[in-house]
Design goal:
The chain is 34% helix and 33% strand. The protein has 175 residues and is an alpha+beta fold. β6 and β7 form a beta hairpin. The two termini are 26 Å apart. The model has no long low-confidence stretch (mean pLDDT 93).
Length: 175
């Protein structure tokens, strides 16, 4: 498979919103109440929000397209909030990281994570952190392969449902 990774532009907001909604529902839909899921999707993945995130100078959104220019993955890296359990001096967050199921196992996820790490370095980060649902074993295993270690937890809400995300951190100095 051939992929191209590029920085998102304002013109990508609607397409990104649709992709983000679909991949979130495919990943977490069966484990959440429909009302909570709908509330989360409406709050997090509408085109106006994606447009604002793409325009935000403290958020970098990277898209992956296949040979037919179809969106197959994305990552959002940001300089925002930092949980107390993250000890780095200049931590950068991998806020969202989604790969379409047909692209699993292709090596694309590692390339996309390398892009996230490079963005963090460009912003002067010394480590990268992320939150991952404690019940998402596949993602946790992948992040560990990328050098992340568990340092604590934070609450994550899907609608009114409070869930626990593990906080994982990877140093950038050794990469």
């Amino acid at each position: 498979m051939t992929f191209a990774i590029r920085r998102a532009t304002a013109a990508d907001a609607e397409r990104l919103a649709a992709f983000a909604q679909r991949t979130f529902v495919e990943t977490f839909g069966d484990a959440n109440r429909p009302d909570d899921l709908r509330e989360h999707i409406e709050a997090s993945y509408h085109p106006a929000r994606q447009s604002a995130e793409i325009a935000d100078p403290d958020t970098a959104t990277w898209l992956v397209e296949d040979a037919q220019s179809a969106l197959v993955a994305y990552v959002q890296v940001r300089r925002k909030r930092i949980p107390e359990c993250v000890a780095g001096e200049r931590p950068i967050e991998v806020h969202r990281f989604y790969v379409d199921r047909p692209a699993h196992g292709t090596g694309l996820a590692r390339e996309l994570m390398a892009t996230a790490f490079e963005q963090a370095r460009e912003w002067g980060g010394d480590c990268v952190w992320l939150g991952v649902w404690e019940r998402n074993a596949r993602a946790i295993a992948f992040y560990r392969k990328c050098g992340f270690v568990d340092v604590g937890s934070i609450d994550f809400y899907v609608g009114a449902d409070r869930q626990t995300d593990r906080v994982l951190v990877a140093p950038l100095t050794d990469r």
